Amino acid sequence: MSKTWRIFCACRRTVTVMCIYALAALFFTTSTLPRVFAETSSPHIFLKTAAPHLQPGTTLCFMVKNSRYLLNGNGFQIGHWGSALTGILGELEKKLSLPKDKLERVYVLLTDSEVSRNKLRTIENYAVQSEYMSSTLNVLTVLTRKRFKFVRSGEEKNSLIESTCYQQNSLLVDANDFPTDDRWMGRLASKAIMVMKETFKCNQSATDDVLIYNRRGTREIRNHAEVASLLRRNGLSTTVLTPNDLSPMEQICELTKNRKMIITPHGGHQGTFLFKREGVAVVVVSPKSALLECYRFFAKRSDPWYSVRGERAWSCPDVCSDSEDAFFDPSCDRTCIRMARRENADVSLDALRRVLTMHFGEGSNKMSVL
Fold first, then answer.
1. Residue 118 and residue 40: Cα distance in Å, rounded?
2. Which stretches of the chain drop beneath a pLDDT of 50?
3. Distances (CA, A) of 295 to 49, 96, 227, 232, 266
4. How much is the pTM?
5. Which in 4, 16, 112, 210 has the greatest CB count within 10 A?
6. What is the 8-class DSSP label of residue 347?
7. If one looks up domain 201-360 in CATH, what number appears?
8. Residues 6 or more apart from 77 whose CB is under 8 A from it?
9. d(CA 242, CA 294)
C-alpha cells in the first residue's frame, strides 16, 4: 500500500486537521521531484532501479535544480541559465575526456524542491518558448556532437525518469550556483569561437574597438553617449547595443567578436559572456549603492576584468569583492542588493579614465596595444 493511500485511509477514519497537514506536506515535498529520485550530498540524482536495457554510457541526464531562478519578471533568465550551462559544460569536459566515450544523447530536465508542480510547469513552459535556451542547446549539440534535448513535465519526462535516468548517468547542476573559478572551462569552451564561426556563420570581425553592451530599464547606463564620446576621444571606436537589438544567436555572435573591451552594466544578459572571446577585456558597472557581481568566472581568470561602482574603479583578477581595491560593503544585505538592482548604472567618466589607464597605460591615445 502506498504512503499516500495509507494516509488517506487514516484520514477517512479520523478526519482531523493533522491529516490534512500530512497530505499537504506529502504533496509539496514530492511535487517537483519524482519519487524515484533522491537528492543526495553527492552531485547525483539516482533511480532506485537501474536501466539495464541501455548500453552503458550512451545517455546522460542533467537535472537542473533551483530552477525557480530561471524565471523572473521579464521571462526566461539568461544569467541563471548561464550558471546551469557552466555546470553542464564542466561535467561534459570530464565525461568526454574519457578514452571510451560512447555518449550519444543528453537530456536536460528541471527540478526545484521549493516550488509546486504547477509553478515548475510554468518555468518549463517559459524555457521551451525561450529562443535563447534552444539556441544554446543547438550550440552545445554542435560543440559536443551529442544530441541535446530539453524535456518538460508530462508523459515523456515521466517515461524518461522511469526508464532512462539512473544513478550512473544522472547529474545535478545548479541554476543558482555561479562559478567562483574557471576550472569548468576546457577544450569545449575553447572550441566555441570556432564553432560559432564555422557552423553558425558568425561574423567575428569587429568594426569597433569597444562594445557598450547596455540594458533597458533597470541598471541602464543612461549616459552611454558621454561614455562613447570619451572612448572615441581616446582613439577607441565604439558601438552601443542592447540585447533587445539582437536575436539570441546574434547576442552570442557579438560576444565572439575580436574587440578590445566590452563595457556593460551588471545583469542577466551577462549569461552570454560564457561565449566571450578569450582576451577581450570586460568592464562591469554596478549601481552606486551596491557592488553586484556573479559573472567574473564566465571568463578565464587570465582575461582582464574591471569593476566600476560610483567614482571607484578597480581590477578583478579574482572575484571583484575580494580584490584589494574593491568598493564593497559586506553589510549590504538582501534588501540592499534588491534595491540596488532597481537603480540605473551611470558610469563615472573619471572612473572610466582610470580603467583605461589601468588597461592601456598612461597617456595612450589611439589605444592599439592589444
1. 24
2. 1-48, 51-52, 368-370
3. 38, 25, 22, 27, 9
4. 0.85
5. 210
6. P
7. 3.40.50
8. 69, 70, 71, 268, 271
9. 19
